[in-house]
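Hi all, posting the design record for the shared folder.

TITLE: backbone redesign
STEP: 1 of 1
STRUCTURE INPUT:
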């Protein structure tokens, strides 16, 4: 059993003592998992591959990191540096996808039902919009009914609904055996959007989803949902898609009617090594740009 020290900071009730420090230990079955707390995306590729090769054996350790991040988002996003543990949740959630953990899909969907912006804080910017769909598509086959509930019930954030819609659409594209069930959900969703009650609300520029509807958020979701229908090649929904355009429910900055073509689009994603390589390239490009700015000659005023 390997223990990794983790320092938690919390505001003290005594104003004379601004912060109290609590030491906790995360226990791992595999000591190498502790290395995830020592480096950001520049972590040794050999370490990542060694952890990945452990497969399902390391799932429990990695889930423990994700669970801790869900419980303590401020700690991981604000209190520590990326190379001192702040990047550990990112390493863990990407490695869980690499080992095809079904349990991590449950965690991701759980986060979609809360403050979704925490995901970008705990993991990395754009994780919500670029990566979440992959967990639903490839690992969330047992969570389809839960995804359906989030789409229809409560006050799920627009980005959460978009991620779920894309995840379900891609699930149907990658795994055709699930297409019928996904299309049943999308059919009900279209019926809800185009119902008399919803249309009356939209005519008044009021939202229709959730307990506290937001018109602009609903339009953004519907527009992205329409894109998912196109990527799913759901030609049988041409009539409904036309109705969305006719009733002004599609933001043409997201989807122009002239480009609304039904064509199967099987989306792919980058693995953990490719993601980190992109981050390194991006950082190097920024450094080069900074150096060039510093080397620019100063503008000298001409004397009269």
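Okay, here is what came back for every position:
SEQUENCE:
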């Amino acid at each position: 059993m390997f223990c990794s020290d983790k320092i938690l900071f919390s505001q003290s009730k005594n104003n004379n003592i601004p912060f109290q420090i609590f030491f906790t230990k995360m226990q791992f079955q595999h000591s190498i998992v502790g290395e995830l707390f020592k480096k950001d995306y520049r972590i040794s590729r050999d370490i990542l591959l060694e952890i990945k090769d452990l497969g399902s054996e390391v799932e429990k350790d990695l889930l423990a990191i994700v669970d801790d991040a869900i419980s303590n988002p401020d700690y991981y996003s604000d209190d520590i540096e990326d190379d001192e543990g702040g990047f550990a949740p990112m390493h863990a959630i990407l490695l869980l996808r690499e080992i095809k953990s079904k349990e991590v899909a449950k965690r991701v969907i759980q986060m979609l039902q809360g403050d979704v912006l925490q995901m970008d804080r705990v993991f990395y910017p754009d994780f919500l919009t670029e990566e979440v769909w992959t967990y639903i598509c490839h690992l969330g086959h047992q969570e389809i009914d839960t995804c359906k509930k989030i789409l229809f019930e409560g006050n799920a954030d627009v980005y959460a609904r978009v991620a779920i819609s894309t995840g379900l659409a891609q699930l149907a594209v990658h795994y055709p055996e699930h297409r019928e069930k996904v299309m049943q959900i999308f059919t009900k969703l279209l019926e809800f959007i185009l119902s008399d009650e919803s249309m009356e609300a939209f005519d008044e520029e009021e939202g229709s989803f959730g307990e506290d509807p937001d018109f602009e958020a609903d339009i953004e979701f519907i527009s992205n949902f329409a894109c998912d229908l196109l990527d799913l090649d759901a030609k049988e929904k041409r009539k409904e898609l036309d109705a969305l355009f006719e009733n002004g429910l599609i933001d043409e900055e997201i989807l122009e009617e002239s480009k609304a073509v039904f064509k199967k689009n099987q989306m792919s994603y980058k693995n953990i090594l490719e993601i980190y390589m992109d981050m390194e390239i991006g950082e190097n490009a920024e450094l080069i740009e900074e150096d060039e700015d510093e080397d620019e000659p100063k503008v000298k005023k001409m004397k009269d």
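COMMENT: The chain is about 55% helix and 5% strand.
Let me know if anyone wants the other runs.
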